[in-house]
Design a protein that fits this description.
The chain is mostly beta strands. Helix content is 0%, strand content 46%. Strands 2-3-4-8 form a four-stranded antiparallel β-sheet, with no helix packed on it. The protein has a three-stranded antiparallel β-sheet with strand order 1-10-9, with no helix packed on it. It binds FE2/S2 (inorganic) cluster.
Length: 102
């Protein structure tokens, strides 16, 4: 697996970083001190979920309001019924790294 640099290990909860993976862009969030990465593509209609409201460990797609679990990628409400990809994250050398190769 390749580890892609998403940025410095200084992410503030509620903000996000991006990582360019081979399969597309990933979004990295910080939740209760833990980093979580999900694909920046909604399973409903392919819209970008970047910038969507994040609350209670969930992200809401800004287009039609589907919500996804940031930890598992599971779809939590209509109009999405399939989950989104999640990626492993590690911290090292003062940077946040997202695992590519899934
Ligand atoms: S594209 Fe995300 S809810 Fe429709």
């Amino acid at each position: 697996m390749n580890w892609v640099d998403a940025g410095p290990d200084e992410l503030v909860e509620g903000e996000y970083l991006t990582a360019d993976l081979s399969g597309g862009e990933a979004l990295v969030y910080k939740l209760n001190g833990e980093y979580l990465a999900v694909a920046n593509v909604c399973s409903h209609d392919g819209g970008e979920i970047a910038g969507g409201l994040v609350a209670d460990g969930q992200i809401e797609c800004p287009r039609h309001g589907a919500r996804f679990c940031l930890r598992t990628g599971a779809a939590l409400c209509a109009p999405a019924y399939e989950g989104i990809q999640v990626y492993p994250v590690r911290v090292g050398e003062g940077r946040i790294w997202v695992g590519d190769g899934y």
